[in-house]
Specification:
Helix content: 40-55%
Bound molecules: adenosine-5'-diphosphate
CATH architecture: 3-Layer(aba) Sandwich
Low-confidence stretches: none
CATH class: Alpha Beta
Distance between the termini: 24 Å
Oligomer: single chain
Number of strands: 7
Radius of gyration: 15 Å
Shape: globular
Mean pLDDT: 97
Structural class: alpha/beta
Largest sheet: 7 strands, mixed
CATH topology: Leucine Aminopeptidase, subunit E, domain 1
Number of domains: 1
Length: 179
């Protein structure tokens, strides 16, 4: 399942799937502050990449909320993993800003490395508890705003892990595109 939208000269794509199978230049990890394997997206990415990823992450130290760091992808299809720590949802006024910055700091890193394509999971909506509907609008607006200011990227893909999340992101994007 997938839908493509044109934003400036780039493609924004929504797909139902698994982040570790994406063949984009980079995939994004919804990481914890230690960049440690853990569960969810992070566990899957570390399993897919192999133990060298954790070795490289250990050397990077702690990652604070919204910050992004880049490593190689090792055994993954993607050449790079961009690790970002989304906010733990607590209904604070800073939560949306932090979530937006996780997306935009990841995109900034990709663009610094001259990468042309990147895949994101739905950051913060698993263990970190961000309500998916709210998070979908923040994520998509962050990506669209960033693309409009940075012509270099060719493809930004959101990889949703359930049909429910996919439909939520799709209706958010349909609403935003019809405005
Ligand atoms: P966070 O700690 O930022 O909330 P999680 O990894 O717990 O991150 O979950 C973020 C989202 O990613 C959730 O919606 C979860 O269902 C989804 N997810 C889990 N595994 C995968 C995967 N392999 N590929 C894509 N999305 C995944």
């Amino acid at each position: 399942m997938g839908t493509q939208y044109k934003v400036s000269n780039s493609v924004l794509e929504l797909v139902l799937g698994d982040i570790i199978l994406q063949e984009t230049d980079a995939i994004v990890n919804a990481a914890n502050s230690q960049l440690a394997p853990g569960g969810g997206v992070s566990g899957a990415i570390h399993r897919g990449a192999g133990p060298q990823l954790w070795d490289e992450c250990k050397a990077l130290g702690v990652c604070s909320t919204s910050e992004a760091k880049i490593t190689k992808g090792y055994n993954l299809f993607a050449d790079y993993v961009i690790h970002t720590v989304g906010p733990v949802y607590a209904g604070r006024v800073s939560d949306p800003e932090n979530l937006k910055n996780s997306y935009q700091n990841s995109l900034d890193l990709a663009s610094k490395k001259n990468l042309k394509s990147i895949s994101f999971p739905s950051i913060s909506t698993g263990v970190f508890g961000y309500p998916v509907k709210e998070a979908s609008y923040i994520a998509l607006k962050a990506i669209i705003d960033w693309i409009k200011q940075h012509p270099g990227i060719e493809l930004v893909r959101m990889v949703l892990h359930s049909e429910e999340d996919y439909s939520m992101y799709k209706s958010a994007l349909d609403n935003m595109m019809s405005d």
